[in-house]
Amino acid sequence: MTDATQNNADDNDLDTTIYDELPDAPPKKRLKLSWTGKIGVAVVAFWLVIVVIGPWISPFHEADIIGDDSFMGIWTSTEGEGVHILGTDYLERDIFSRIMWGARMTIGISVLATLLAYLIGVTAGIAAAVKRGWIDMVLSRVNDAILSLPTIMLGLLIVVALGSSIPILIGTAAIIYASSVFRIARAFGQEIMVMDYVESAQARGETIWWIIFREVLPNAAMPLATDFGLRLVFVVLFISSLSFLGLGIQPPAADWGSMVRQNLEGLQYGSLAPVWPALAIASFTIAINLIVDDISAKSGGDLARKMIS
Amino acid sequence: MQRMVFHRILIGIITLWVVSVLVFLMTNALPGDVAQIVLGQSATPESLAAYRAERGLDQPLISQYFGWLGNLLSGDLGTSKAGGASISSLISERLYNTMVMAGIVALISVPLSVGLGLLAAMFPGTWIDKTLTFGTLALISVPEFFIATFMVLIFAVNLGWLPSVARVSAEQSYYDWWRSMAMPLLVLTIVVAAQMIRMTRAGILNVMNSPYIEMAILKGVRRKRIILRHAFFNTIGPIVNVIALNLAYLVSGVVIVETIFAYPGLAKLMIDGVQTRDLPLVQATAMIFCGAYVILIILADVAAILSNPRLRNPK
Amino acid sequence: MAELFEIDNLQIQARKEDGTPIPIVKGVSFNVKAGQVVALIGESGSGKSTISLATMAYCRPGLEFPGGEVRLHGKDILTMEPQDQRSLRGNNVAYLAQSAAATFNPAITIGEQVTEAAVLHGTLTQEEADRRAIQLYHALELPDPDLLGRRYPHQVSGGQLQRLMAAMALVSGPDLLVLDEPTTALDVTTQIEVLKAFKKVIQEEGSAAIYVTHDLAVVAQVADHIVVLYSGEIQEQGPVDQIINNPQHPYTKRLMAAVKPSPKAGMGDVHDEEHDRVVPNIEVKNMTAGYGGIVNGKPVITVLRDINVKIKNSHVVGVIGESGCGKSTLARVMAGLLPAAKGEVYLDGNRLEPDLKNRSREELQKIQFVYQMADTALNPRQVIGDILGRPLEFYRGLKGQERREEVANLLRLVELPVEFETRYPSELSGGQKQRVNMARALAANPEVMLCDEVTSALDSIVSSNVIKLLKKLRAKTGVSFVFISHDLSTVGSFADEIVVLYAGRVVEQGPVDEVLAPPYHPYTRLLISSVPELRVGWLEDTMQKREMAVGIARGVEITDTGCPFYNRCPIAIEGTCNTETAPTREPSPEHFISCHRTMEEIEDIEKNPQQILHGFEVAAPGGDKAALAAKPV
Lengths: 309, 315, 633
Description:
The complex is a heterotrimer.
Chain A lengths: L2 H9 L23 H23 L18 E3 L3 E3 L10 H37 L1 H15 L3 H12 L3 H28 L2 H9 L3 H37 L11 H7 L12 H22 L4 H5 L4
Antiparallel strand pairs in A: 1-2
Chain B lengths: L1 H27 L5 H6 L5 H11 L5 H13 L13 H36 L4 H15 L2 H15 L15 H34 L3 H8 L4 H39 L4 H11 L2 H29 L1 H4 L3
Helix pairs in contact in B: 1-12, 5-6, 5-8, 5-10, 6-8, 7-8, 7-10, 8-10, 9-10, 10-12, 11-12
Chain C lengths: L4 E11 L5 E12 L4 E5 L6 H7 L8 E10 L2 E2 L5 H7 L4 E4 L3 H4 L6 H11 L5 H14 L5 H4 L9 H13 L5 E5 L7 H18 L2 E6 L2 H7 L2 E6 L2 E7 H6 L4 H9 L23 E14 L2 E14 L4 E5 L6 H9 L6 E6 L2 E3 L8 H6 E4 L3 H4 L6 H13 L3 H14 L16 H14 L4 E5 L7 H18 L2 E6 L2 H7 L2 E6 L2 E7 H4 L6 H9 L7 H7 L1 H8 L30 E5 L2 E4 L4 H9 L17 H6 L3
Parallel strand pairs in C: 3-8, 3-9, 6-7, 7-8, 13-18, 13-19, 16-17, 17-18
Antiparallel strand pairs in C: 1-2, 1-4, 4-5, 9-10, 11-12, 11-14, 14-15, 19-20, 20-22, 21-22
Helix pairs in contact in C: 4-5, 4-7, 7-8, 11-18, 15-16, 15-17, 16-17
């Protein structure tokens, strides 16, 4: 059923029924992940499952000192306890179990911090884009200032000043990364605010809340979701780096960053103890990046491939 | 155009001022009483009070801030509270070391990454592109300390080619100096370049969507020329920005690398200052890092403005 | 003997996600002889642009050639080695895209871009190419030909860029020129100058051409042979005279029926008096508006000056003018989207607040704005039912079943199927989206609808259908319309009254039949003459008129004093028109013309066109626009 058929039945003697108005363009393709993206999804899903059930399925407790020796190799076993799949660490604890427990710390804290960063950053960013004027001015300047402090330095200052506890770590990471979220949310917000459909809602007399929640946010959701992935990677790396510097999560709780640091000396004895937690971090962050890449980095490549040498 | 550049610089100055407030407030929140730390547990209340009066620590925070800012602007970075030495003298050598390291890394990584980024963009979808994309993706996904650890494992522990600690001094021979610098430089270059390669590639491919690129294809222009002449010239602004952001990112990388390799740079000094609660020292070093960061970002913005043909050649 | 260029059973297809092919072009065959101009005509989606790119063995990402041949000098180019294809592009076959503004690289000088293909293919040395480019600039009547090459694309106007693209295509002397809708995005007066230049160089160069467009009237001016396309298939092809004067295929007839008539008195819509009231529905008094803050009571960038417009109840007022004349700004001021710097807007006799934030919900409800681009005016994340339902709920408090019924009524009103309720805007065609866009405004039960270029982005058939719909809506609802367009024939066929804007000032306004009949304001005259007619030879006849010589050769100049049209006016009086504000004359009731010439003088000139052009030299071909503009006024 289209324009042409209905319109001309009454006032046009030409038989036009067969000439429907043609669609503008083929319908947009739905998001389809390549095999790298699918691997990414699988790895992320795996770690998220471990975050939830890790402590129940791990062979040992994270703080159990059960090994025969420190820096035992992979697939060694302790009498009466069982197999150390990835060996033991400097305190004779089971590395495999600690990685499973540590997932909860490293990923859990990072996800919470990123969510908090999003809550702060998106609220402030959209507010700046929608309200403009002095609110935008003040928020942007403060944000510029936070962004112009190198992240790790800012983190160091805050953690040293306030002490290292899990809520403070989450808060610190959230504030630091909220500023980048602010920038992006503000940019998307500004882009959407000048669209005719937003102006149309303003002209209708809609409230600011309607405009934010019904007109702007739904259209910013997809790019923000992609950015969320990237931000999460940064937060994981940030928290791990703090832990590595000894300012992050405090022992005996296991987290991947401090596990690398604590077991560094093992390298000299040929132990791979610091490598496993580092690989855990890398597998998680690489997997997220694979997904993000798959969603966002296609642009331009198609036309570029049409070039003839 | 001059107005835009001027405007940008003005914003930069305002940002620096806000930074100074943040740094001051944050360092003041550091736990511990400086007077107590300096004079030790045995100090009497009178001597503590005298110390505070002498250093202006009994003044209200706001006048402390302005006193500090005034001194900072006149080039007086104050005295280290712990050792009593002038901070300028403490910093100068460390600053030099850090700048040497950052300078060498910048000199290597910028041309390297822009070149590799262009290469990847020029052959999208080929194995060159795929290798570079995945390799850099892996590198930006792992923490710097992991790369550093890995390097130590290979080059210092297993192969024994390089020292695992970067001790540098004026008495060293060139050879020794380069040997001790090799690993920190390598780690920093890898970390910084990975990010820059990806962003350069993305910037070029983004421009590749433009109708004028299709037009160039339809004019029968060769691939190399399309990338280098048609796409690259429109990407200079964004690429300069990427370079500046990543050079600024060096600052963060420096903290980790200097710690791991015990390199006598500014970042190490700052972390030491944090540990000894040496307020003036932390304030001064933080201001230097942040200042460098802000200046780099302003330079990038100005370069982006200058590289825009619309702004350079007004109607 | 092979023709210069042959397309033989060409097929082009896309693929669905599961790999099944979607045919885009379904076996198209036609030839182009040396020196011949072949027009590909069809609506969007007909595959005409895809075919035009195939002439260079190129298809957009996601498309492929499953079969057929494209032969240049008898040799199939689709199966050539990529290197050979590349050396063909820009050399043997050259392409002109629709939007020159997007097609020129902003970071490279015009000269380098124009000469690039010829130099890269080794056809000419850089010096030869530069010389040839300058020759082409002269031939295309571009200003300042010797220095033009050193400028950047943003430093020249849109019409000039469009001609520069012709120079870029012609510089290597191609055998075949492919022009993809090269004048569609231009104002009529610019279109005619570009058409004239294209036609001249194509003739001089003797190259063959494929001209892609949806506008039959344009085709009639430039083509020798016409190929009519619909949905990737040829419906009819033949010599231009035959297709224009004796179309056989029903689809061609339909295209012909959608061609806009030339604007003239008596073409307007019938005005139904049953809704009339004494108070004007909207009235704008002494209004000045612009952008960038107000300094000394004037906006920094003044777009509109001293505007007085009345829109009577249930009337349609057409606002016409070239791009940049301020016609959209006028609608935005009425809607309160842009508060006026000076002057007032009245609704039903009550003064409205300048800024919509201070207007009441009832006032907002009564004035509805319809945007030009339905693509950006409809939220892509809301289904049609929500887009239409929201104003119903917001203004009229309808909910649930009531709301759903009213949405269905609205969809029926704009002649769309009720099932569209659950679709997203991206699932609709351009014309359908525009209907939704109008339905949303109607949902508010408005008194006035401000339609900003609502048909400009649509193909001719779709656009004529939208106009038909608007006429019906008006008869059914008694809503007043402000209909903004750069297309005089569309405005003339729909409006009761016309306001002619030029450089932010009203130069003429009045009932349609008065405005579109003599005496004309000289600018109205120029606009009417510039609308292409569906007649072979119209372009040549029109360009003979001397009023075109001045009006076309020069651009808009915004001045503070005198008549804004002074520099393009063939009957300007030097010393008066450029210094004094023109008096407003009223040749018949409610018909106003702002001109220093008396109506008798204007009518006299209409009868005896030889006496025009006082105090002006006609710009010689290749005349220097920049130099003219620099002349002290």
